[in-house]
Structures are given as structure tokens and as C-alpha cells.
Design brief:
The chain has 284 residues and is α/β, with parallel strands linked by helices. The chain has 9 helices and 10 strands. The strands form 3 sheets. It has a 5-stranded mixed β-sheet with strand order 3-2-1-4-5, with helices on both faces. The chain has a 3-stranded antiparallel β-sheet with strand order 8-9-10. Strands 6-7 form a two-stranded antiparallel sheet. Mean pLDDT is 85; it is low at 130-154. The structure holds 3-hydroxy-5-(hydroxymethyl)-2-methylisonicotinaldehyde. The site of 3-hydroxy-5-(hydroxymethyl)-2-methylisonicotinaldehyde has 14 residues, from strand 1 and helix 7.
Length: 284
């Protein structure tokens, strides 16, 4: 069985970060080890949340795992709370990366063009440079997150989005995904590009609702798909459909809580999408 490690916070209540990654990735048949970077009572959209910072635990936990000769097929990072935490995570990459291993960075630190409220302006720009949610189409035309500032252009502008993807590749990653992009009028979805110039786009009808944690859900399903031998495009497709199904299920439930998306009931859908995609992908 493949084993991955995810480095992100535990928001005890809130359906995000580790409480999404663990169930989704485990359901996809992959061992998901958690290295919690902080424990919060809730995610940071609640007022008065508590937060225990665990930055100092990253290095000792890593040392213990090294001593136990633990290896990971992928390292998956999500929400990180401080520049210092980013530095520790980079050290973790250096310690645990392998030639065949995957490093999957979800820059879950912003939405709608703004850093989450709990993060300071000193947050490392390179980390945010990976931030699809910083450069999601909804705000490209309103508040550019990249500098130099892009021109104010009406959507959709495939050229502009391609330029953004290229800038992300220039930061050093092999493959990049831009989520929340208006890939066609009325369709929201994913754009992907890799170092060889191969690109893809995948859109689904834009739903009127939006919920907290959908980015975490997308990233977790994507990592699970990749660990099952899917290509990034296949993984992104099933992740997008899973998120869309979860949003629809939440929207029709009048008792749904405001703070997250009801993904639990959609796990069987995810697994059948995974099965179909695996048949196309061939043996892992
Ligand atoms: O969903 C991303 C996320 C993860 N972790 C914490 C958050 C958020 C978004 O607000 O506050 C603590």
C-alpha cells in the first residue's frame, strides 16, 4: 500500500485540512500519515478559535521517523500558519523526498485574492506563488495577486491564465494546476500544465453555492488519485467531480452546517470515479 504524509493543521471542527485529507485519502486505499502543524478548535473563519502551534514538533517528529526508516510515496502540504512553519516544511522535503516521490503543495492560505485573516503579510511569496486560490479567475480581474500587476482584462482570457501557469512552472514545479478557473463560459474547473508544455482543461457547470474547505477536498482527492496511478489530468477530473457532487449534496440539505462541505456521503461516488479512471489508466 502506498503511504503518504500530509503536513497541515488539525482544525478539530470545520471539515478542512487533516479532517478532510485523512478520510478521503484513506478511502482511496492509501495510508495517510498526518504531521499536524497546529491544533485549532475550529478553522479560522470562526470567531475566537484557539490555536496551539506545533511548528517546534516538525523536526523531532521527522527525526523519529528517519530513525525508524520511514519512507513516503508522497508529501502533501496544505494550510501552513507562518513563515517559520514553511521553513520547517522545506527541511522536511529535503529529508524525505525521494527520486520517485511526489511533493504536492496546496497553497491553501488564501481565497478570493486575500490571505486568510490569521496570516501575516510576511508570509513567503514563493509559497503563495503556488496559490491557485489566490489567482482564481473570480478575482483576477479585480485584484491581481501577482506582480507585475496583470492588465484589467475581461474574462475569459486563456492567454492570461496560461501565463499564470507558466509563472508557476517557473517557480520550479513539474506540474501545476489552477483551480476555480472559468474554463468556458458558465463552467468552472481546472487548468493544468507541465514542464513539457502539455496542458489540459476540465470544466463543470458553475454552481451558485460555495463552501469552505472545497480546495482541501479537491487537493486530497487529487493526491489520492495520483497515488492510485492516475495522471494529473485524470486525478484532477475525478477530484473536480467529487467536489462538485459534494457541493450539490450540501446545497440540497437544509440542515447543512455553514462551515464546511458535506463530502462524506459522496465518498462512494469518488470511489466509483476512481475505479473507472483506473481502468483507463492501467496497472499501478
Ligand atoms: O481550508 C483551508 C484552511 C485550513 N486550515 C485552517 C483554515 C483554513 C481556511 O480558512 O482556517 C486553519
Amino acid at each position: 500500500m502506498k503511504r503518504i504524509v500530509t503536513l497541515q493543521d488539525i482544525s478539530c471542527l470545520g471539515r478542512c485540512s487533516v479532517t478532510v485529507a485523512l478520510p478521503v485519502i484513506s478511502a482511496m486505499g492509501v495510508e495517510c500519515v498526518a504531521l499536524p502543524t497546529a491544533v485549532l478548535s475550529t478553522h479560522t473563519m470562526f470567531p475566537d478559535f484557539t490555536c496551539l502551534d506545533l511548528t517546534d514538533q516538525i523536526a523531532p517528529i521527522a527525526r523519529h521517523w528517519k530513525a525508524q526508516s520511514i519512507h513516503f510515496d508522497a508529501i502533501y502540504t496544505g494550510y501552513l500558519a507562518s513563515p517559520d512553519q514553511c521553513d520547517r516544511v522545506i527541511e522536511f522535503f529535503q529529508d524525505f523526498r525521494t527520486p520517485d516521490g511526489l511533493i504536492f503543495v496546496d497553497p491553501a492560505m488564501a481565497d478570493g485574492g486575500k490571505l486568510y485573516a490569521a496570516l501575516g503579510p510576511d508570509f513567503p511569496r514563493p509559497w503563495l506563488g503556488f496559490a491557485p486560490r489566490l489567482i482564481s479567475w473570480s478575482q483576477i480581474s479585480q485584484r491581481p495577486a501577482f506582480s507585475p500587476a496583470p492588465p484589467m482584462i475581461p474574462p475569459p482570457c486563456p492567454q492570461y491564465m496560461e501565463d499564470l501557469l507558466k509563472k508557476l512552472l517557473d517557480l520550479g514545479c513539474r506540474q501545476v494546476l489552477l483551480t476555480g478557473a472559468e474554463v468556458r463560459p458558465g463552467e468552472v474547473g481546472v487548468l493544468g500544465l507541465d514542464q513539457t508544455g502539455r496542458s489540459f482543461s476540465y470544466g463543470l457547470p458553475r454552481l451558485p453555492q460555495s463552501y469552505h474547505g472545497t480546495g482541501d477536498l479537491f487537493a486530497s482527492a487529487c493526491v489520492g488519485g495520483l497515488m492510485n496511478g492516475l495522471t494529473l489530468e485524470q486525478a484532477a477530473r475525478i477530484a473536480a467531480r467529487f467536489v462538485s457532487a459534494s457541493i450539490s449534496a450540501t446545497a440540497v440539505n437544509p440542515d447543512a452546517s455553514w462551515y464546511g462541505v458535506e463530502f462524506e456521503g459522496q465518498i462512494p461516488t469518488l470511489l466509483s470515479l476512481l475505479d473507472q479512471a483506473r481502468q483507463l489508466a492501467g496497472p499501478v
